[in-house]
Design goal:
5-stranded antiparallel sheet; about 150 residues; 3-stranded antiparallel sheet; about 20% helix; alpha+beta
C-alpha cells in the first residue's frame, strides 16, 4: 500500500481518496477506519470513489435491496453503514426516520401532502417523493407539531 499526502493551502476541506484495483475487505476496513475519524460526515461510494458527505448536503437516506443509499441534491452514494447506524450518527434536530427504509432531512423537504388517508406524502427538494409509514405517522406528526 502506498500513502501519499499533498499539502495545498487553497484547499477548503480535507479529502481522502482511495484508489484501488477492486473493492475488497481491506478497502472496506480502511473506509470504516477513516469514517470513524470524521464522524460528523458520512462516507459513501460514488462507483469506486470514496467521498465524505456533509450532513448538510444530505437530502435523504434509504435502504433498498440490501444496500443503503445516501442522496444529495446532485448525487446518490452507496454506503456500507447500516440505516440504524446512520440514524444514530445523523443530527437528531434535522433528520427523522419516516419508515423502515427512509430517513429524511427536514431542512430539505419541499412540502408535505396530507391528501392520502392514513399516510403523509413528502416531496424533497431534489424531486424525490417518499411516504411516511403508518407506524411512524404519530412520531412525524408530533415532530411537526401537528
Amino acid at each position: 500500500m502506498k500513502v501519499e499526502v499533498k499539502i495545498d493551502k487553497d484547499v477548503l476541506e480535507t479529502t481522502v481518496l482511495i484508489l484501488a484495483k477492486e473493492l475488497d475487505d481491506d478497502i472496506l476496513e480502511l473506509q470504516r477506519n477513516i469514517a470513524s475519524i470524521k464522524s460528523h460526515a458520512i462516507a459513501g461510494f460514488d462507483n469506486y470513489r470514496l467521498e465524505f458527505i456533509s450532513q448538510e448536503d444530505i437530502v435523504r437516506v434509504y435502504a433498498n435491496m440490501g444496500n443503503v443509499y445516501v442522496v444529495t441534491k446532485t448525487k446518490e452514494y452507496v454506503t456500507k453503514t447500516t440505516l440504524g447506524e446512520l440514524e444514530e450518527l445523523l443530527n437528531k434536530t434535522a433528520f427523522i426516520r419516516i419508515s423502515r427504509s427512509d430517513i429524511i432531512n427536514l431542512k430539505k423537504v419541499k412540502g408535505f401532502d396530507f391528501a392520502f388517508v392514513g399516510t403523509i406524502s413528502v416531496e424533497m427538494i431534489n424531486g424525490d417523493v417518499v411516504y411516511v409509514s403508518r407506524r411512524k405517522l404519530k412520531d412525524v406528526k408530533k415532530y411537526l407539531g401537528i
